[in-house]
């Protein structure tokens, strides 16, 4: 009798366990998800330097490996020189831009204050001699000169007091920006010092979530982040330095400020060509003609750089469209801060890759490889 009762309760317990077992993985996943959300909530104040440090660490990881070989296997020396390189490539330009604006705050405020009162000069005589359109350009030019342009500038440009307030507020947050830079460097040192363990952990997580495709997607994220970060940053540095040389050569007023604007425009994916074109127009009406011609030559080189240099650097690592880079940079900047300029395009590209893989469509790299293979076959 006792044995029957024992068997009855054992079977009931097994039935209950079998009924509960499908629910247990769901509850486990829910608990893990809540723990991860709580951890992100706790580290939320430090999230920008963590993201920024992780982005730069991924970008400069090959440099650490090369420097470690040169430094006789010393990881500490390799990390030290890599942090110096990061300060020169990523942090020094941003600090210089802030310092330049802080030093010229009075000049910038005065220039913006008098800008609505400046009128266009009379149209050059050669404009009226342009075939077919010259006769229409002159009346439109005169209309802008007398009525539309000054009023439009008065409506668009804020008052000097408001601009000065914004600049002073930005200068007041300079200390917090330096603190964020310092935290970013600390994150870099921690990540690069234990990079192999972190890479192994992420590889296992990617394998557990998606198997071989999960690991491939993780590797693609690394390559895309490196390509976008180097492409955007190096292009902005080279173009703004080249533009600064041209501005100094022709004696452009506030040339350093214009070069700083050019750097910010390049980082935000607007390019630096429009800054150089406006500088050329300004010099044409306010300086000798030769200065405007020299600036125009520099502007043409910058236009070529906008369309050639950044795609060349990025396509060494990944084939990503300009639209994805621009949308990702704008969205990432508004949501994640400056690090989002690089993380945003990476996330969009990975999302596009996953959707293509799910739909069974070839990725851009595969299509490019197939096109190259077909071209080689046709030539042979």
Automatic annotation (TrEMBL):
It is a multi-pass membrane protein. InterPro entries: AI-2E-like (IPR002549). The chain crosses the membrane at residues 26-44, 79-102, 108-127, 163-192, 228-250, 257-277, 283-305, 317-343. The keyword Glycosyltransferase does not apply. Keywords: Cell membrane, Membrane, Transmembrane, Transmembrane helix, Transport. Pfam families: AI-2E_transport (PF01594). The keyword Cell membrane applies. Its main location: membrane. It is found in: Cell membrane. It comes from the Bacteria. Belongs to the autoinducer-2 exporter (AI-2E) (TC 2.A.86) family. PANTHER family: TRANSMEMBRANE PROTEIN (PTHR21716), TRANSPORT PROTEIN YDIK-RELATED (PTHR21716:SF67). This is AI-2E family transporter. The lineage of its organism: Bacteria, Pseudomonadati, Pseudomonadota, Alphaproteobacteria, Acetobacterales.
């Amino acid at each position: 009798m006792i044995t029957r009762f024992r068997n009855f309760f054992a079977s009931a317990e097994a039935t209950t366990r079998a009924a509960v077992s499908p629910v247990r993985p769901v509850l486990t996943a829910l608990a893990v998800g809540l723990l991860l959300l709580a951890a992100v909530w706790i580290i939320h104040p430090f999230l920008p330097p963590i993201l920024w440090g992780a982005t730069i660490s991924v970008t400069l990881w090959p440099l650490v490996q090369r420097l470690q070989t040169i430094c006789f296997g010393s990881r500490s020396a390799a990390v030290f020189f890599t942090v110096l390189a990061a300060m020169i490539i990523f942090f020094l330009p941003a600090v210089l831009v802030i310092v330049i604006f802080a030093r010229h705050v009075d000049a910038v405020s005065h220039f913006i204050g008098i800008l609505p009162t400046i009128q266009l000069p009379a149209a050059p005589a050669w404009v009226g001699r342009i075939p077919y359109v010259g006769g229409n350009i002159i009346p439109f030019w005169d209309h802008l000169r007398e009525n539309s342009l000054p009023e439009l500038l008065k409506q668009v440009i804020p008052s000097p007091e408001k601009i000065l307030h914004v600049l002073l507020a930005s200068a007041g947050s300079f200390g917090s920006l330096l603190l964020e830079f310092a935290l970013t460097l600390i994150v870099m040192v921690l990540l690069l010092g234990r990079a192999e363990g972190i890479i192994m952990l992420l590889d296992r997580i990617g394998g557990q979530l998606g198997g071989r495709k999960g690991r491939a997607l993780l590797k693609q994220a690394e390559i895309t982040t490196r390509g976008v970060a180097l492409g955007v940053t190096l292009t902005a540095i080279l173009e703004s330095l080249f533009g600064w040389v041209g501005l100094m050569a022709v004696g452009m007023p506030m040339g350093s400020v214009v070069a700083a604007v050019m750097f910010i425009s390049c980082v935000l994916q607007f390019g630096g060509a429009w800054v150089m074109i406006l500088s050329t127009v300004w010099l044409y009406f306010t300086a000798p003609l030769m200065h405007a011609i020299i600036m125009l030559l520099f502007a043409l080189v910058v236009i070529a750089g906008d369309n050639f240099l950044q795609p060349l650097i990025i396509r060494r690592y990944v084939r990503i469209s300009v639209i994805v880079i621009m949308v990702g940079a704008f969205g990432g900047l508004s949501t994640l801060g400056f690090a989002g300029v690089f993380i945003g395009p990476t996330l969009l590209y990975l999302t596009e890759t996953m959707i293509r893989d799910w739909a069974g469509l070839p990725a851009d790299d595969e299509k490019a490889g197939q096109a190259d293979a077909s071209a080689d076959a046709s030539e042979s």
